[in-house]
Amino acid sequence: MSQSKLRWGVLGCAGIAKRAVIPGIQQSQTGEVAAIASRGEEKAKETAASLNIPKAYGSYEELLADEQIDAVYVPLPNHLHKEWTIRAAEAGKHVLVEKPAALNSQEAEEMVAACAKAGVKLAEAFMYRHHPRYAMIRDVIASGEIGAIRGIHGAFTFNNAKDANNVRYKRYMGGGSLYDVGVYPISAARLILGQEPQAATVHAFFSSEHDQVDMMASGLLEFADGVALTFDCGMWAAGRNVLEIIGTDGRIEVPCAYVSRQNADDHFFVTVRGERREVAVPYVNHYALQADDIGRSVLEGSPQRFGTDDIVRGMKVIDACMQSAQERVRVVL
To answer: Which CATH number fits domain 6-125: 3.40.50.720, 3.40.30.10, 1.10.238.10, 1.10.3470.10?
Structure first.
């Protein structure tokens, strides 16, 4: 492309878009937010005005028809990700779709195929993976300082259970804690170990007060060489956002593992033979870095850090976790 910036459109006025992703794109080196759409023009105009976005549309179709838009961010409820990713691809737009990319791996495969056919980029919005601390964590592991990895534990929980109308509590929309926050520790373990799990066992609390979605889930993912991820995730529990990597000689603790506060909370700790040290990380906006990854891929031809095959593999793991939780069985991948 001859232009210097990727022109983004946003399909919907979701909280994550307004609070984090739009400001991230606006702070990126490669992108600008040129338009936003909602199902109502008034809401789109209000959001556009509050975030200094030049154009507002009263329908997603209108935004996709805008030839001045190069890429779209899709923060819609999970059950709409496939439809609007494919429609965006068919309109010639590159796509950043909110996690989880789809409701299952079959949908993910269809989305990947549609984007490949249209010749557009597709990325899943796991912003945390673009933060430099994860490269730093992998460097500590590769150095051998904590020895061989013996296990990983991750947790991501919050309590929003009183918000009965929240889309997270609608089963047909792809609600539930596994989809919403469980995907983070699962993704992090796959990233850190550089491999896929061999089996999944998940026990979940399905709430009759919340359309029978899983409001809390605890799981075990089995990796090669006896290494496992144990994790829990929840939307009706006290807040936690942590990751711990256990080695033969030491451990790594990440107290604020999946979000970035751009302050000292982002640092992590390494303990070896009883001595604990803090590792300072750069204060960066990982939403901006996420936008720059796809931006440089489009504008400069750089390879994306995470390919579309990763999207499908990740959804296969979530498929196995959902099946295990629903059927109360161990699922081999």
So the answer is: 3.40.50.720
pLDDT digits (tens, 9 = 90+) for 84-143: 999 999 999 999 999 999 999 999 999 999 999 999 999 999 999 999 999 999 999 999
CATH architecture of 132-283+315-332: 2-Layer Sandwich (3.30)
CA distances from 80 to 17, 103, 176 (A): 15, 9, 15
* Residue appearing with tokens 């010749």: 119
Active site (annotated) includes residue 99:
yes
List the chain domain ranges: 6-125, 132-283+315-332
- Interior CA angle at 270 toward 291 and 314, to 5°? 40
- Rounded CA gap, 277 and 294, in Å? 34
pLDDT tens, position by position, 213-242: 999 999 999 999 999 999 999 999 999 999
Contacts of 305 (CB under 8 A, 6+ apart): 129, 130, 293
Catalytic residue among 82, 93, 99, 316: 99
